[in-house]
């Protein structure tokens, strides 16, 4: 099964579970969790079921396309269900069966792994799912988001698309994976991997990046005060990516690092709060049509 | 016929580290609950897997036992009036107990008469009590809890089914939206939902559904699988007990398998190979009979032998990727020099107020030098210790330690040898982190011990000096463990240096640093160490008052303090010690009044004065000799010789004589003797036990 078919299979499966299929969010980010479709929407009482593929940028993991396992940018297939359904583990396992993984012929395990993202004031409990010893999915019940208690609780499933594909396609090198018939990951992503690594580690203009960080931060604060939650959050994402670029370049010392993370966290927290306030002001619209959303 | 009872809590996979404890809690709480509820039974068996914790109670009584209880009412003088008629108080009491005054009887308690009623509490049918088991489930505690869906209950992981059976009947209750039933679920993939008709069938039904509910049996199965592989292949599987316990609780139906990795990876340091297998993948490593690692690993599948080769192949692929990563890191790391990594330390913050790791290294280096000189280590050893301190943290900047932080020090040793450092220096890099846990191994080399002590004292002094004394569960730098480590090393090494002298060396170094230090940080550090020393002594069975007696002045040479504490603990068992102790304490209590330490023998008026002074002169030198050599028993014998003359002295002299010269002279005598006693211990702290 090629990656394209995998994505289609997962989309179909989660669509059948009443998940809204949305598209990747158009701002750089380190993980699918940071999309407002997850981070903001899992706040508050409104039901929310969604699935999407998220290209995730981790500048420090860039290896010029030379490493068989590490990428500047990989893909996550992200599912959020709020409130978490009682049969979520079964729904997840069904999705693996649809990807051609027969549980009787493999060893599928839920191994404790608690997740925490201090930058976003987020924490959850759950597992990494092992497929014959390989971690293929992060499975988390959110307990706290943006410093706020998650109630009801959302469950987040994050499939590592390339990881899973390397198992399904039995490939040792991520660049050998078939995206679709006759087209490999190398064909599509090798050049950007190489160039982004070069940019990240050699060519980025760090003065400019420091400058951008402050500007993004100020803009986020400015428009937060106007109650514009989503635009403010976009600037937080930009801050986060800019910080990741600087960090990968090795120009942020450990002390400064804590300082930057605190700045992003404070922004994320105030946005989380503002989001809930804003939804409340709107009367939690999704709550009213909760029946429809939940199916 | 008595019924059996079954409770099973079905959950999404519990963290492996919770499983044993959850089973134990369930069992203990059930036993306590049944006792409290006065329900008898024949036996209780508990079970646990990652997906269930359960309990079977055999032959439970059908009703609670009936008991008679006496309730005491008012005193007869209040219960009856002058005419001997029942008062309102008596009537009220009887009524309150559901009885009438006819039921009241009089009984004497400690010479006073009271009225009593005897109440019979009829046992209720067990069936009515059993739904109360719900409270047991919700009272289980875990180190981390979660909520799920729209439920408000906090539990280790979501509860998905509940079995509650009394005989054939379902015991009705509901937790977090889950109702009890008689249906259990077997292995996630191999089992089927199955109805249980009697608790007696529970273990068998689960086994038919590929669940071995008894954790002990699962562990045995794994060990049998391991043994079979060992015999078949004539090698040795390294079974770490913690890992075995964890793996046992990661599976419901274990199947042990062997995987292989490329021989080329064997050139990696064995610690790296072992940690790659154990830490991330939960595999057991394999050794040849001559102790070398072999290119195999042992895994445990959660399931049966179906398509086992696919599982093996998958696991091999994962390990191969991990080892390839490790190999890459190892080779990359060799391309640089120790200096390269040391330079990087200048950019890593150790603690905000204490600066970078490079600055810490500098402090540890200076302290190491001071300690080595104080201990008068040979020049060569001092040189090695200083070198070890200088490069002590270089490995923190390597790819390998970045990936496997638990290899700090171990990688330091391996790489230092690769980089042609002296053997002694390399070993010290590893030993500086010892002991790594409460009863962990101590440094085997003196250089390692010096570095370990210097490194720990610097951390403790640094962190506390900037106001971060551990409190409650807050001890992010593990200062308590490190302080205990310092003391254990001092005990082990028997160096002629007191803890206070060691700390003084660190304080002097810190005084020169421009840091934002707390005013009274030195006192806080002394107190902190005293507390740790006290705990260590108590672990040896020393009682609190003896601990205070030996630590009240200072911790001193810790090994000697331990010896003195043991001597005092033994002596106090002996009735004759009381007289000695009293004598010495009389001296200590009076010594404060002394204004001088100069005894003038010409001013003695009585024989007893002279005798005490003579005994003091006789004892002083041998006491100091033995005390100095840390021969506690012999030193204390000299103090014991003083006891009798002290009693004579107090019995025959007015110390506080009217003549000031004589008074001061007597006080001076008391004072010089007190100095000896205090060198040994502050005996005023010792409390007398009833038995004497």
TrEMBL record, chain B:
Transmembrane segments: none
Protein's UniProt keywords contain Cell inner membrane: no
UniProt entry keywords in alphabetical sequence: Aminoacyl-tRNA synthetase, ATP-binding, Cytoplasm, Ligase, Nucleotide-binding, Protein biosynthesis
SUPFAM superfamilies xrefs: HD-domain/PDEase-like
Listed PROSITE patterns: AA_TRNA_LIGASE_II_GLYAB
Stored Pfam families: DALR_1, tRNA_synt_2f
Major place of residence: cytoplasm
InterPro entries: DALR_anticod-bd, Gly-tRNA-synth_bsu, Gly-tRNA-synth_heterodimer
Cellular localization per UniProt: Cytoplasm
Domain DALR anticodon binding: 582-683
A GO molecular-function annotation: glycine-tRNA ligase activity
Domain of life according to the entry: Bacteria
The EC number(s) this enzyme carries: 6.1.1.14
Reactions the enzyme catalyzes: tRNA(Gly) + glycine + ATP = glycyl-tRNA(Gly) + AMP + diphosphate
Family under the similarity heading: Belongs to the class-II aminoacyl-tRNA synthetase family.
Subunit structure comment from the entry: Tetramer of two alpha and two beta subunits.
Protein name per Swiss-Prot or TrEMBL: Glycine--tRNA ligase beta subunit
Gene source species: Oceanobacillus luteolus
Organism ancestry: Bacteria, Bacillati, Bacillota, Bacilli, Bacillales
Gene: glyS
């Amino acid at each position: 099964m090629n990656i394209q078919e995998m994505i289609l299979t997962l989309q179909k499966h989660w669509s059948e579970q009443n998940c809204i299929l949305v598209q990747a969010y158009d701002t750089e980010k380190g993980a699918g969790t940071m999309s407002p479709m997850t981070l903001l929407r899992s706040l508050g009482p409104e039901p929310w079921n969604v699935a999407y593929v998220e290209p995730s940028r981790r500048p420090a993991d860039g290896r010029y396309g030379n490493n068989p396992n590490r990428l500047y940018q990989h893909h996550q297939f992200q599912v959020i269900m709020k409130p978490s359904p009682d049969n979520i583990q079964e729904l997840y396992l069904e999705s693996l069966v649809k990807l051609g993984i027969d549980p009787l012929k493999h060893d599928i395990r839920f191994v404790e792994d608690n997740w925490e993202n201090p930058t976003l004031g987020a924490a959850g409990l759950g597992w990494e799912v092992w497929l014959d010893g390989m971690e293929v999915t992060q499975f988390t019940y959110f307990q706290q988001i943006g410093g706020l208690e998650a109630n009801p609780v959302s469950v987040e499933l994050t499939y590592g698309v390339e990881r899973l594909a390397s198992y399904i396609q039995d490939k040792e090198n991520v660049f050998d994976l078939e995206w679709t018939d006759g087209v490999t990951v190398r064909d599509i992503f090798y050049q950007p991997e190489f160039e982004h690594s070069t940019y990240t580690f050699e060519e980025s203009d760090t003065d400019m990046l420091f400058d951008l960080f402050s500007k993004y931060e100020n803009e986020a604060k400015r428009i937060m005060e106007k109650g514009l939650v989503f635009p403010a959050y976009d600037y937080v994402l930009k801050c986060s990516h800019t910080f990741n670029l600087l960090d990968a370049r090795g120009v942020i010392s450990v002390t400064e690092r804590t300082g930057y993370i605190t700045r992003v966290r404070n922004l994320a927290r105030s946005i989380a709060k503002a989001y809930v306030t804003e939804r409340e002001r709107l009367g939690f619209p999704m709550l009213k049509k909760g029946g429809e959303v939940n199916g | 016929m008595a019924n059996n009872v079954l409770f099973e809590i079905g959950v999404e996979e519990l963290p492996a580290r919770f499983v044993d404890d959850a089973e134990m809690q369930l069992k203990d709480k059930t036993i306590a609950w049944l006792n409290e509820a006065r329900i008898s039974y024949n036996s209780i068996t508990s079970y646990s897997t990652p997906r269930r914790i359960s309990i079977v109670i055999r032959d439970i009584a059908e009703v609670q036992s009936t008991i008679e209880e006496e309730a005491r009412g008012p005193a007869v003088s209040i219960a009856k009036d002058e005419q001997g008629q029942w008062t309102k108080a008596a009537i009220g009491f009887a009524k309150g107990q559901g009885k009438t005054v006819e039921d009241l009887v009089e009984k004497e308690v400690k010479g006073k008469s009271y009225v009593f009623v005897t109440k019979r509490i009829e046992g209720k049918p067990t069936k009515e009590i059993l739904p109360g088991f719900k409270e047991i489930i919700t009272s289980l505690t875990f180190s981390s809890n979660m909520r799920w869906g729209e439920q408000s209950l906090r539990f280790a992981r979501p509860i998905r089914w509940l079995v509650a059976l009394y005989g054939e009947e379902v015991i009705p209750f509901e937790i977090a939206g889950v109702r009890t039933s008689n249906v259990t679920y077997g292995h996630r993939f191999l089992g089927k939902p199955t109805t249980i008709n009697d608790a007696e069938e529970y273990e068998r039904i689960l086994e038919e559904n590929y669940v071995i509910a008894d954790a002990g049996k699962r562990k045995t199965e794994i060990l049998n699988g391991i043994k079979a592989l060992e015999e078949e292949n004539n090698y040795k599987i390294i079974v770490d007990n913690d890992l075995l316990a964890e793996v046992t609780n990661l599976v419901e139906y274990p199947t042990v398998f062997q995987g292989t990795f490329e021989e080329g990876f064997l050139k990696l340091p064995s610690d790296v190979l072992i940690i790659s297998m154990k830490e991330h993948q939960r595999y057991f490593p394999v050794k040849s009979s001559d102790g070398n690692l072999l290119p195999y690993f042992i895994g445990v599948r959660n399931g049966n032998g179906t398509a086992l080769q696919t599982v093996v192949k998958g696991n091999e692929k994962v390990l191969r990727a991990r080892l390839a990563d490790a190999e890459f890191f190892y080779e990359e790391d060799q391309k640089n020099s120790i200096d390269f990594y040391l330079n990087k330390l200048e950019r890593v913050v150790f603690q905000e107020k204490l600066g970078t790791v490079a600055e810490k290294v500098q402090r540890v280096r200076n302290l190491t030098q001071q300690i080595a000189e104080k201990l008068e280590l040979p020049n060569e050893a001092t040189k090695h210790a200083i070198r070890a301190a200088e490069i002590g943290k270089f490995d923190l900047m390597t790819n390998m330690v970045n990936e496997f932080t638990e290899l700090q020090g171990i990688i330091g040793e391996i790489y230092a040898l690769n980089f042609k450092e002296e053997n002694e220096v390399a070993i010290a890099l590893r030993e500086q982190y010892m002991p790594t846990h409460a009863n962990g191994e101590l440094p085997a080399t003196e250089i390692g011990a010096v570095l370990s002590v210097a490194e720990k004292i610097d951390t403790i002094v640094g962190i506390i000096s900037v106001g971060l004394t551990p409190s409650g569960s807050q001890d992010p730098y593990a200062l308590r463990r490190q302080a205990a480590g310092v003391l254990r090393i001092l005990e082990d090494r028997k160096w002629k240096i007191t803890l206070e002298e060691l700390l003084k060396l660190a304080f002097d170094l810190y005084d020169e640093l421009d840091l934002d230090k707390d005013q009274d940080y030195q006192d806080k550090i002394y107190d902190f160490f005293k507390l740790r020393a006290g705990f260590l002594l108590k672990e040896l069975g020393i009682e609190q008052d003896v601990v205070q007696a030996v630590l009240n002045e200072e911790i001193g040479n810790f090994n000697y303090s331990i010896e003195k504490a043991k001597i005092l603990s033994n002596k106090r068992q002996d009735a004759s010690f009381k007289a000695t102790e009293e004598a010495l304490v009389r001296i200590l209590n009076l010594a404060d009044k002394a204004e001088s330490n100069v005894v003038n023998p010409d001013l003695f008026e009585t024989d007893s004065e002279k005798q005490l002074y003579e005994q003091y002169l006789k004892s002083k030198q041998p006491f100091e000799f033995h005390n100095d050599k840390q021969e506690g028993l012999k030193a204390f014998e000299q103090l014991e010789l003083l006891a009798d003359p002290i009693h004579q002295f107090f019995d025959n002299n007015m110390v506080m004589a009217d003549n000031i010269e004589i008074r001061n002279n007597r006080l001076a005598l008391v004072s010089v003797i007190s100095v000896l006693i205090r060198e040994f211990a502050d005996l005023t702290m010792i409390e007398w036990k009833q038995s004497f």
